[in-house]
Amino acid sequence: MSTPGETGTEAWPLWEVFVRANRGLSHVHVGSLHAPDADMAVRNARDLYTRRNEGVSIWVVPADAVTTSDPDAKGAFFESPAGKNYRHAVYYTKSEGVKHL
Amino acid sequence: MTAPADLTVVENEAAQARFDDLIAQDSRIEPRDWMPDAYRKTLIRQISQHAHSEIIGMQPESNWISRAPSLKRKAILMAKVQDEAGHGLYLYSAAQTLGIGREEMTQQLIEGRARYSSIFNYTTPTWADMGAIGWLVDGAAICNQVPLCRASYGPYGRAMVRICKEESFHQRQGFEILLELMQGTEAQREMAQDAVNRWYWPSLMMFGPPDDESPNSAQSMAWNIKRFSNDDLRQRFVGMLVPQAEVLGVTLPDPNLAWNEAEQRYDMSEIDWHEFHEVLAGRGPANAERLRRRREAHEEGAWVREAAAEYARKQAAKAAAAA
C-alpha cells in the first residue's frame, strides 16, 4: 500500500516532518515536503515549518519508509482493548474517598 | 485479483456507511479512509486551487519588495511573501494525500488548466495597494478560511489551522500601512482611498457567486467541507469592515451600504458579477502576466531541481560505496 502523497513520479521524494516544540516534549508530525535528500529536507523543514520559533528540533523521515496499520481493518485491529476497562484506574471504585489513591 | 462484482458492491456500501457515519458525527476523514470519488475530486480541486492561489498570490506583493518605503517594510513584505509560499506548500501537501502528484498540480497551473483566486489578477500600481491587499484581501481570506479549519478532511483542516495563525499578521500589517497613509499628507490619504476603492469590490467577490448561483455549495456543506454559505460569509466580512473603515477614516465605495435593522444584515449594491466571470475566464487585468511569470519561474528553476536531485543521487552512491 502506498503512502499518502507519495506517487513515485516526482523529481524529489516526499518527506514527513516532525517538530519538537520545546525541550521536554516529543516530536509531533507537522506535515510533509519534497526535498532531494535528507539534509535539504531538514533545511526546507526549518524554512517551511519553523518560521516563528515553532520548534527546537526537527526529524524528517522518507514518506515511503512509514508503515501504517490497514485502515480497512480498523475495527478488528483495535478491538483488543475493548471490554478491558480494568486497564483504567476508573474501573476500581472501592477506594473512593480514600486519600492519595 | 478482482473481487466478484456483487462483493465489491457490498464492501462499498459498508465503506459508504462508515463514511456517512463519520460525517454525521462531525468527525474527520483521514487520507487512507475510503471516501466517495466525488468527495475526493471536490477536495483535490478545492485544495489545489487554494494552493495555486497562495503561490500566484506571491506575485502582486513581491512586485513591491524592492520599492517598499523602508527597510522595515521590505523585511515585513518579504516575510509575508514567504508565508504565502509556505501556505501554498502546506496545501499542496494536503492535496497530495488525496492521490494527486505535486508535479501534476504544477503542470495544471502553468498550462492554464487550473483555477486560482481571481483576486490575484488585479494589478498593484501603488504602495497603498499593499495596505489594501493586507486589509481587504487577506481579511476576506481569513473570513473564508477560519471555518475551513473545521473542514471534514483532516489534512486540509490542519493546514488551514497553520495558515490562519499566520494570516492574522498579514491583515494587521495591511491595516497599519493604510492607517499610516491616512495619517499622512493629503496625497497619501488619496492614495489609500484610491486603493480601497479598487480592492473593495474584488475582495467581496472572493466569497464566490451568490448562494442561488453556487451549485456546488450545498454538497460541500453536506460533506462538512464548507460551513457557511458564500453570502453569509460576505455579510460577516462587511460587518467587520465597516467599523474598521471608520478607524482608518476611509470610505467604503458603496453608496448603498447601510445596516438594515429589520433584517439584521447590511444592504449593499449589486456586485458586478460580469467582472467576476470575466476575470475568472482569464480576461482580468493581469491573468496572462501572472501565468507567464509562474511558468517562467518553474522553467528557469528546472536546472536547480535537476542539479539537486543529481547531487543527492551521487552522495547516496558514494555513501553506498563507502559502506
Description of the molecule:
Chain B: One of its GO terms (biological process) is phenylacetate catabolic process. Chain B: It comes from Agromyces luteolus. The complex is a heterodimer of chains A (101) and B (323). Helix content of chain A is 16%, strand content 20%. In chain A, strand 1 and strand 2 form a beta hairpin. Chain A has a single domain, classed as Phenylacetic acid degradation B (Ubiquitin-like (UB roll), Roll). A 3-stranded antiparallel beta sheet of chain A has the order 2-1-3, with helices on one face. Chain B is mainly α. Chain B has a single domain, classed as Ferritin. The two termini of chain B are 40 Å apart. At the A-B interface, strand 2 and helix 1 of A face helix 4, helix 7 and helix 13 of B.
Separate helix tally of chain A: 2
Q: In total, how many beta strands of chain B?
A: 2
The N- to C-terminal Cα distance of chain B equals 40 Å
Give the overall pLDDT of chain B as a whole number.
Answer: 94
Strand order of the largest sheet of chain B: 1-2
Rg from Cα of chain B:
22 Å
The secondary-structure element order of chain A is: EEHEH
Structural class of the secondary elements of chain B?
mainly alpha
- What is the overall number of helices of chain B? 13
In the CATH hierarchy, the third-tier topology of chain A is known as Ubiquitin-like (UB roll)
The number of distinct structural domains of chain B comes to 1
Keywords:
heterodimer; A: 101 residues; alpha+beta; Ubiquitin-like (UB roll); 3-stranded antiparallel sheet; 2 helices; 3 strands; 16% helix; 20% strand; flat; B: 323 residues; mainly alpha; Ferritin; 13 helices; 2 strands; 2% strand; globular; 1,2-phenylacetyl-CoA epoxidase subunit A (chain B); EC 1.14.13.149 (chain B); oxidoreductase (chain B); Aromatic_CoA_ox/epox (chain B); PaaA_PaaC (chain B)
